[in-house]
Write a structure and sequence with these properties.
198 residues; 2 helices; disordered N terminus
Length: 198
């Protein structure tokens, strides 16, 4: 029951708050018509790390169309802000092809505290290919956070090879740790909701 309350709250926040930015945190990729994901393939999440006051957050994917996604779904239980980008492995991107997806970043201990929501984006079939690297926006407050500047960032159809940090919690073999991490996060969220209701 509590999990449903949390998921409903997050679904409403995600649906109503496209392009939300709190504490300087803003999602740069994916989002909008020009920055889509490819189903079953590695895909990027890039955010404005240099402007954010948050040190870490939980990453979720959401869609108000329940025929595409029945509930908001966890992607990364604890992401460090300083990473600036995260590569979500293809084994995790199993959502059906469709429009209206959003990435939601929340407090790791209280998922009803939404930090940022991406613009709606589309998950496309493999045949669509990745968006052109020139579509990737930059974090204006710091060095460019875009095509190929981090080892965990896809640029066009290739993986960048710069000095960024490696992906965490979403690679092959991480599915069980992702599940256990999200179970722990779910317990914390449940405790936070119980405390709020008392």
């Amino acid at each position: 029951m509590l999990a449903n309350v949390v998921l409903s709250t997050l679904a409403l926040a995600g649906a109503a708050s496209a392009a939300v930015s709190n504490g300087g945190l803003k999602l740069l990729v994916p989002g909008g018509d020009n920055l889509w994901w490819i189903t079953g393939q590695p895909n990027n999440i890039i955010w404005s790390c240099s402007e954010s006051t948050f040190t870490q957050f939980t990453m979720w994917i959401n869609n108000s169309d329940v025929s595409l996604l029945t509930a908001i779904t966890p992607l990364v239980p604890v992401e460090q802000n300083f990473n600036c980008a995260q590569l979500i492995q293809g084994e995790v991107v199993t959502m059906p092809v469709g429009k209206g997806y959003t990435i939601v970043l929340t407090d790791i201990t209280n998922a009803t505290n939404v930090y940022a929501v991406s613009d709606p984006f589309e998950i496309k079939a493999l045949s669509a290919g990745y968006p052109p690297a020139t579509n990737t926006p930059t974090d204006q407050a710091s060095a460019t956070v875009s095509k190929g500047t981090a080892s965990n960032v896809i640029s066009g159809s290739q993986t960048g090879t710069g000095s960024g940090s490696s992906p965490s919690q979403t690679g092959k073999g991480a599915a069980s740790s992702l599940r256990s991490g999200m179970a722990a996060a779910g317990a914390l969220v449940g405790a936070a909701v119980v405390a709020a209701l008392l």
